[in-house]
Amino acid sequence: MSYQGYTHILASVDQGVGLIRLNRPQVLNALNAELMSELVDALSRMDEDDDVRCIVITGNERAFAAGADIGEMAEASLVDMYTRDNLSRWDRVRRIKKPIIAAVNGYALGGGCELAMACDMIIAGEGARFGQPEINIGVIPGAGGTQRLTRAIGKAKAMEWILTGRFVSAHEAERAGLVTRVVPDEAVLDEALALAREIASKPPLAVRLAKDAVLAAFDTTIETGLAYERHNFYMLFATEDQREGMRAFLEKRRAQWRGR
Ligand code: CAA
């Protein structure tokens, strides 16, 4: 599948990993409607592409993304915002079945922080800065910040981050539970790609059902969540990879995954 022809992102596939680079450096990768629609398009196509097992989204050294494009909404009315409904595109990101890793250098603010949180894991450079500064421009997070940040780091911290809009260092974000791992700035993309390749080497149906079950933890009671997990676990006994994985273990050899 070809991933050429986008204007605001660059996309490619290598060794089972789809790489999407946000590419509006002149505005610190501010997420305008066109960029978001290209991003959603590339993610959806990678989700269907058998050559892709895991996806990495990154920005540049200065910014992962400094938020939604303020220029695009500064003069918008409620009716404009409601009828454009740009933020509903984000629901599609949530429905991508393959794991997504955010590789974050520089600013991940507002919608940028929300995009990183919509991914499944975040690898951050030491110089990365996270935050939900919407309060300082007269609004609140609109692409999941109040929900995902609160689930990730708890009410007490999320409330402070969102009500002050302060920028948070990568190490603080890691301590709070937002970030998977902090690495030197120059190692961010390599670390994220290495993690993505490791995940890409695992049995794909098990990866998909594991992601699905972990995400369900946010939406359900513990009872329903446990039943959901059990269901996904049992489902894997309909796959060739379950037979292969368990037999390979007992025969003391390396499993050959078929994704079936
Ligand atoms: N939207 C549009 N343009 C943006 C932008 C954004 N979110 N963030 C940065 N830019 C533009 C700047 O306007 C500037 O453009 P010009 O060169 O044409 O003036 C360029 O990117 C570089 O930015 P700065 O000159 O401001 O760079 P800096 O190093 O001095 O500051 C910064 C960096 C602290 C990140 C600052 O740019 C900033 O505060 N940006 C806005 C952060 C923000 O408020 N994000 C939340 C947006 S609202 C949102 O995301 C809603 C939602 O939940 C969906």
Word description of this protein:
This protein is α/β, with parallel strands linked by helices. It folds into two domains: 9-200, 2-enoyl-CoA Hydratase, Chain A, domain 1, CATH 3.90.226; 204-251, Orthogonal Bundle (Lyase 2-enoyl-coa Hydratase, Chain  A, domain 2). The protein has helices spanning 33-48, 70-73, 78-84, 90-94, 111-118, 145-153, 155-164, 170-176, 188-200, 204-216, 222-235, 240-250; strands spanning 9-14, 17-22, 54-58, 63-65, 100-104, 107-109, 121-125, 129-131, 168-169, 181-183. The protein has a six-stranded mixed β-sheet with strand order 1-2-3-5-7-10, sandwiched between helices. A four-stranded mixed β-sheet has the order 4-6-8-9. β2, α1 (33-48) and β3 (54-58) form a beta-alpha-beta unit. α10 (204-216) packs antiparallel against α11 (222-235). It is globular, with a radius of gyration of 19 Å. It starts with 8 loop residues before the first strand and ends in a 10-residue tail after the last helix. Acetoacetyl-coenzyme A is lined by residues 27-28, 30, 66-71, 107, 109-111, 114, 133-134, 137, 141-143, 145. Acetoacetyl-coenzyme A binds next to α2, β6 and α5.
